Amino acid sequence: MALQIGDVAPDFEAETTEGRIRFHEWLGNSWGVLFSHPKDFTPVCTTELGYMARLKPEFDKRNTKIIGLSVDPVDNHKRWSNDIKETQGHAPNYPMIGDTDLKVSKAWGMLPATLEATCDGRTAADNQTVRNVFVIGPDKKIKLVIVYPMTTGRNFDEVLRVIDSLQLTAKHKVATPVNWKQGDDVIIAGSVSDEDAKKTYPQGWKAPRPYIRIVPQPRP
């Protein structure tokens, strides 16, 4: 079954380009992004891996660890890294999981759990469902799932935007409106009564409708 928001992220042990890890232990008290790839040496994924390496300082600022996954062996990942650096200007600076037995892909609902196979002989088309982005919170629960087709490169700037929203709304009883970005106004959560909202926002709020209560973004 596919993972849903609120599910505990499946734990696993795996070989990566930075050594063997146990996922929950590796994540620690950080947020995390796991993004998966159907095959090494594929064009769209090459651009994605390079861009994610360039963005890593932004994830670091948000206490968010990055980890990639591909069904090919770690040695292939390392060879692919050279191509990524030469063509994109940045080599992966985060671990890449070698999911050769497909266990992680199956545990995370990206391939059928009943599939009896390894990466040997499988093509990118066979693994086209392994094109996901997961955001995991420090509580080890899934906060976001996005699944992309093979022909569409992922928007990792959007993933950063969502993490900003998730971290803000985890700390304050607010929600973020359409196309929100850092510094924009936010909406008081529906779970907060007007009486309680007045305690937090004594200056009041804008309310084009009683159920839409707009306030400036709370300070961190």
Unreliable runs? none
CATH fold annotation of the largest domain = Glutaredoxin
Q: What is the CA–CA distance across the termini? A: 37 Å
- Profile the largest sheet: 5 strands, mixed
CATH superfamily of the largest domain: Glutaredoxin
**Shape summary:** elongated
Describe the structure.
- The protein folds into 2 domains: 13-154, Glutaredoxin (3-Layer(aba) Sandwich), CATH 3.40.30; 172-215, 2-Layer Sandwich (Antioxidant, Horf6, Chain A, domain 2).
- The protein is 30% helix and 22% strand.
- The protein has helices at 23-27, 43-61, 74-88, 103-107, 156-171, 194-200, and strands at 13-16, 19-22, 31-37, 64-70, 96-98, 132-136, 142-147, 174-175, 186-188, 206-209, 212-215.
- A 5-stranded mixed β-sheet has the order 5-4-3-6-7. A 4-stranded antiparallel β-sheet has the order 8-9-11-10, covered by helices on one side.
- Strand 3 (31-37), helix 2 (43-61) and strand 4 form a beta-alpha-beta unit.
- The chain is elongated and about 60 Å long.
